[in-house]
User: Fold these one by one.
Assistant:
Number 1:
Amino acid sequence: MLQPTRVSILIAISAGLALAQNAKQQDAKPETGPAVLAVTGDVATPLSLKAEDLAGMPREKVMIAEQDGSQIEYEGVPLVEIMKKAGAPLGGQLRNKALASYILAKAADGYQVVFTLGEIDAAFGNEKILVADKRDGKSLFGYQGPFRLVCPNDKAGARSVRMLQSLEFVKLQK
Amino acid sequence: MNRVKWLILVAVPLPVLNWRAVSAEPGYTWNLPKGFPKPYVPPDNPMTGAKVELGRYLFYDTRMSVNGKTSCATCHKQELAFTDGRAAGLGATGDSHSRGAMSLVNVSYSAALTWSNPQMKLLEEQALVPMFGQHPIELGLRQGDGFLPMLRADAKYQALFEQAFPGDADRYTIDNVTKAIASFERSIISARSPYDRYHYQREDDAVSDAAKRGEVLFFNQHLLCFQCHGGFNFSDATVSESSPRRRAEFHNTGLYNVPGASSYPAPNVGIYEFTKISGDMGKFKAPTLRNIALTAPYMHDGSIPTLEGVLDHYAAGGRTIASGPAAGVGHDNPNKDSRIAGFELSKQDRADLIEFLKSLTDLEVLHDPHFSDPWVSTKPHN
């Protein structure tokens, strides 16, 4: 249902959009993804991020085109910001062995997709992949959230992991 | 394309259409809600309100059959989301179809029409099958019978044809009849279910918590329901104005596994009937799940009477039939789609999934006068 096909990006960084309302979202949506996003693996600072944590981080919005041409606005924190907060090697540190690493995004239902730091680092791919917690200003649907990835430049939607549960960083060469 | 050729292709019941729109072809305004793309309309049959209206009269007219007893609506009843509640369609002369009548709701979005004909893509061509098909006989019309003269002589049709085809020297043709019926079918769009209000209008209370839990299961990676019943139409590949050509997909779900060369009981062998590729044995279309609670019995041959039974089939990763001519373990069908692997459902999960499917029922389309029998107040047809 959520097949980001073509995309136009609406960049609207707003570093302190503090809207913590995940608790309310949980009431009506049992059996959905966890309320905490874990960032684990070979990072300097493992994280357990709640909605209020994401609300206090740099946030962006992206527009995703539906099949009828209408636009859906997803809002959340860029994946690169979350990996930066966890201490993953980005910017000047992303070279040599650090490039031989990946981020394993896992969903609550077992779905998995791999990304690399090179895709999201500004000096390389600079992809605006988002960890979203809002859709058109409201909490995500139960089958999507509370958190999901949004890959606005992907033609197919399969990497936009729903019910995102964890981001595991793995260095292949240490 | 030679339309006569399609008559031989066979035997599938008239599919259903949906329309909704926004604004479009001259003379026609779609009233499409958010999330629904503008349907694809073939260039040689642009939508007009006059054609849709003529098509509605034809769709419900029992005079469009060999014995005046049957119309398109006989197998496609509005109150059943344009199905007939039967496992297999029944023609005017008593011939039984081998498959069930598919819903016409949102049929304009179908990349391929009917259960298992990958070549049938245009409603104008498909309409010829029930009209003139012989195996089985559905409406039972014949070239040169009294059908076209009846249209020509009927005062109501004279007005309708004049409005629908004002520039034609001879308006009363089979080509125009199929164009009008196809236009009506395209107009039948269902998008006003509780799920639509919940999902597209963000009315959080439009569906129950059970339906919301069922939605999570529906999109779960272990169940994979959404992979074949996906997108806004909860179906296989959809076409639209902006995406008019997409490859239709067909699936063997392990419904049968009978011994012998054909693992599915003849004549319902799926698209193998047309492709003659052994791997296509038992592959059928995954229909829209919109209004699915109203369209029992289920599967191409109506062999599963309830939605609960359908869940049992998929949970088992294929159906086992213990005895009789169709006995076999569908789970082991060599052509089965690898995604039909089976899964476990608790009693609660099962109930939640059913609730989710019921949230796709659009009661308005069942009563919308735009799709209703226009003859009711004037003639005893249907």
Note: Chain B touches chain A at residues 32, 34-38, 199, 202, 204, 209, 212-213, 215-222, 226, 230-232, 238, 240, 242-243 (CB under 8 Å).
Number 2:
Amino acid sequence: MIDLRPVLSILGTLVCILAVAMLLPAMVDFRDGHEEWMVFATSAGLTLFFGLALWLGTRQPSRRRSVRQTYLVVAFAFLLPGLFAALPLVYGPLQLSVVDAVFEAVAGLTATNATVVRGLDALPRGLLLWRALLGWLGGIGVVALGIAVLPELAVGGMQMFRLEMPGPAERATSRGRRIALAILAGYMGATLLLAIALWLAGMTGFEALVHAMGTISTSGASTSDASVGHFDNGAVTVLITLGMILGGMPFLLFFHVLRGNRKVALRDHQLRWYLALLALGTLGVTAWLAGSRGLAPLDALRHGAFTVVSVMTGTGHFTLDYANWGGMPAAILFFLAFVGGCAGSTSGGIKVFRFQFLFAEALMQVRRLLRPHAVLIASFNRRPIPEEVLGSVMGFLFVYALGFAMLSMSLAFLGLDFVTAVSGAAAALANLGPGLGPEIGPGGSYAGLPDLAKVLLTLGMAAGRIELFAALVLFVPAFWRQ
Amino acid sequence: LIDIRPVLFVNGFLLLVLAAAMGIPAMVDLSAGDSDWKVFAVSSMVTGFSALALIFGTRSRGRPSLSARQAFMLTTLAWVSTAAFAALPFAFSNLRLSPTDALFEAMSGLTTTGATVIVGLDHAPRGILIWRALLNWLGGEGIIIMAVAILPLLRIGGMQVFRMETSDKTEAIKPRITQVATSITVAYVVFTALAAAAFWAAGMGRFDAVCHAMAAISTGGFSTSDAKLAHWGTAVQWVAIVAMLVGGSSFVLWTGPWRRGRPRILDDAQAHWYVAFVGTAAGVLALWQWAVNDMSLGVALRHAAFNVVATVTTTGFASADYGAWGGFAHVLFFILVFIGGCTGSTAGGVKIFRWELLFSLAGIHLKRLLHPHGVFVIHYNQRPIAPAILDSVQGFVVMYFFTFAVFAVALSMVGVDLITALSGSAAALANAGPGIGEVIGPFGSYRPLPDAAKWILSAEMMLGRLELFTVAVLFSRSYWRE
């Protein structure tokens, strides 16, 4: 049997952080003279109590965690805090049902922001801040997961991104700490900068803060049902586009750039592909907007770029309702949603690097057909890709496709129509948020779906966030054996 | 440069076969007193003349032998040239199809896709009907021979697993390709005759029985009625289910020597998965139909089995308009198209054995997460699978989905709506035939699509039929070098 204490202790810490975070919306609501501050305060107290109980009850002199314990932590890191994060939603003025509240909370924490709440414009500011905060905290978690945890666990080819820690263990620890600090500073700094820029561009301070949080974490939290389209402000659109692009980049680059090592960023193949794909998608959608919708070229570019970036990074902001766009932009967006951002970013999806690996391998395959006996090895960032990494990536892709197929079939089984089921499943697994179609498209909400569908989508979001395998491994019998 | 003379030489023989085949519809039309017989006779003469010109123009001394490069070129060229000549009767007959439509119809027939642009089949002259069935049948034969004789040698997409086994260790017989090809052809002819007899016994007219037998065993899916198999009764539909299932199974396994007193197909891992998969999908769909759409259990089971088999074997027959069955059916059929039949069959799609290998690959990745230093080997039919084969399979599947995405976007670019573009691209690539949606659904027609879309789909059908890499390799630089 696995020793659960270290697992619970870490989860307890996470819950405590969440409890502290709840105080922020409580303060905002208190200042606004809104009754709801008591809900947040009470929830914070309750959450803190459970968090502390978990943490203190299972605290141990520090020991190395085993691989299995790490998996357990990862598997529940979004679900357990999600339960507590749902408290203010259940008992607040929204009066959501438990299923809805957990859906909303997990959607927030996984930086998905598929929402069941409509009428955001009229909500108390505390709740708006809480949704943004969930996404923002989740974003940090996702980055930490993508940089430190998943590469170590070798999930789905992430082992190619192991941090190189040369030298003795002590130096490695201090290097790790510096990296963590640099990334945290980068994350906070970027959010703050974006918030200030948005404020200068004409948003109120509060709106600027919420949108900055929702953008850098690619969660897509907003203060309005019409998302960024509400502001109808060119500067805001451009700023948020840039912020989302940043959110989809590998955050480790912050560390290198802060250390004055800019070349690493320029040479990174993943980044190039990411930007190239964004540019390509933008080109297609812009051309369609200009041609079919008759937008002025610059407007088309602004909205096209915004939409493509938002979908590919899995943010879910929108300026125009792209649900009723014609076949071509819909097809482009549908496929880009699967691609996702870079490894070690806050974005979701399959991630660009996996496609690069597989594409490089497929090209090698064509060459191998002609030279059966040549030794041809695919490479990434000038490093050869080992055989088992390719196997991992392919395994990941297969499970992703299988998960998508199962989820969309189950949703359709529960009575959703084709477009809603397929795009909803894709949006949940890729942590995107809104899907396509009139019901769950941009500006729509998941509230009308059957409860079971919401439960499935919640699990889909959580599993998509931890790259499926970290969840799947719990179901291997060997995992639980001695 | 590559010596293309042997390629053209072999190609000439294929065209000669086609020219001879055109004689059959000519005779049918002549006996029915239809003036179209002249079109077939002239087309036959043109084709025959071109074939003879090719054969005599490129004849070389000694036995012609093909290098790998020449074989790649032959497979692609053979499909393009036969489709071009097979389109002649469509273009000049009373149907007066435009060149685009004629080529689409011919390509769809020869690749056993079964997507049609002809409306009003019930009143079409018999010559055209039998010509369409013949195209299916000849295409199906070509595909099995290709899958058994050529693709394994070229090591396309993991097909080297099926390279001619030099028999068991005990027997010293080396089955040569011609022998195997002959026995497969015999099996193919016998199955077609059996299917025709069964159709006739089940209540079809003789002409319809022959046409449908050819279309079912080749998993082509051209029918003699606009209502496809819904035009006939229960017994005919059950016969069609069995015939399609046989068409989607590996033909080699029916012919080889029996082991332990039964045909090898009963012990084949792929055949087991195939039957289990079809059974599960049909069962779930039937239950859903029974529970949600209030169909009686028997009818639900028949329609579910029929349409699931028609889709998995990529035949494209339909017994009911599953477009009207609601969301679950849409999603299910959309996903089923990707599965495909067994290797060495006339079915298209990704093929069951590749999914099996991917499934094992994902399982191994999962095991490796827990035992990072373990050594795992994938077994298929009790034999270990070499890493090179896994590479090919991965490359194939990646290319498959990549092609699907690119063509879907291309279709949407020429003005096709989202569902039609997605399902049309999937159906063409898998050589399935009908898609989902109002235009190209089970009883729909590809006629209303823009010409550009038809060209795109024709190209995609050929790509899918030739397992992508055969064509892709022609576009690689190293193919043309030296």
Note: Chain A touches chain B through 63 residues (CB under 8 Å).
